[in-house]
Amino acid sequence: MLSLKSLFSLCLLFAAPNVLAVTFTFTAIPDEDESQLRTRFDKVAVYLEDKLGVTVKYVPVKSYAAAVTAFRNDQVQLAWFGGLSGVQARRLVPGSQAIAQGYEDQFFKSYFIAHHSADLAASNNFPNLNGYTFTFGSKGSTSGRLMPQFFIERNLGKRAEDIFKRVGFSGDHSRTIAQVQAGVYQIGAVNYKVWESAVAAGKVDLNKVNVIWTTPSYPDYQWTVRAGIDAKFGEGFQQKLELALLAMDDPELLNSFPRQSFVEANNQDYEPIESVARTIGLID
After folding, report:
1. Could you give the percent of the chain with pLDDT greater than 70?
2. Are 241 and 229 in contact (CB under 8 A)?
3. First and final CA of the chain: distance in angstroms?
């Protein structure tokens, strides 16, 4: 006859897979420093856990590519992607869906910023960037690489490597700002939301670095859910998740993105991003 202790251990053994099965995991592209990301997304995890009725865990990653890989390998079922990383992830996992975007992500933009030594003033016209040093953000960033590279090459008629004296990839928008402000690079491309948040927080010395050009708008960040989510978490789970994201109205939560609100999104919204990525050779 089993002792009470043995029976309890046996129950835990059989219960463990079910406990794991109801843990809903999500990640986000690391577009800012890790401490800011964890503060933001740990709060999102608490919010979603309350709305979805399952355990929710935020899984940090070290790079844009790692976010896409985690999604492909089903290590996460939801991700806050940029436009390009979302396209890449959905191509790798057919049936996955963009389900929500920030209100501002319908018409996102990048800023080109310059160190004062470059002697470039703000203009509505595309600047002559020939011969300067330039840094993008992450190689997989929509606002820090894809769209800036597209506008540079379209306006100047040459590949980026033939325009600049030196080209770098900072890794994220916060580092782009820091590197241009320090004069490591004369010019950089940055997510306008990260720039405006950094300026508001007093982290930018506007005597050393300034915005010189703003891109036309394009679709960017979005929440993408992995195909098969209802099979894993129950019928109607995806719809419940989408409603929870669209209903997020806590100012503290929204300000951490920062976004005014979340609105509906679908895969077709990001066809322009896929087209641009093909044009400059980032995807086949």
Report:
1. 92
2. yes
3. 64
Q: Which amino acid, residue 15? A: A
Per the confidence metrics, is the pTM higher than 0.70?
A: yes
Mean pLDDT value of segment 89-101: 98
Residue with tokens 């993105």, as numbered in its chain: 257
Count the Cβ atoms, other than its own, within 10 Å of residue 205.
Answer: 12
At which residue do the structure tokens 């997304």 appear? 41
CA 27/CA 281 separation, integer angstroms: 26
Residue 97 and residue 225 in contact, taking contact as beta carbons nearer than 8 Å: yes
C-beta separation of 160 from 167 below 8 A? yes
What is the DSSP code string of 110-161? EEEEEEGGG-----SSPP--TT-EEEES-TT-IIIIIHHHHHHHHHHSS-HH
Provide the residue count of the chain. 284
Report d(CA 144, CA 138) in Å as an integer: 6
Distances (CA, A) of 187 to 60, 150, 244: 29, 16, 40
To which residue do tokens 């690079």 refer?
185
Alpha helix positions (H), the chain: 4-21, 34-52, 64-72, 83-92, 147-156, 160-163, 173-182, 192-200, 229-233, 237-246, 251-255, 271-279
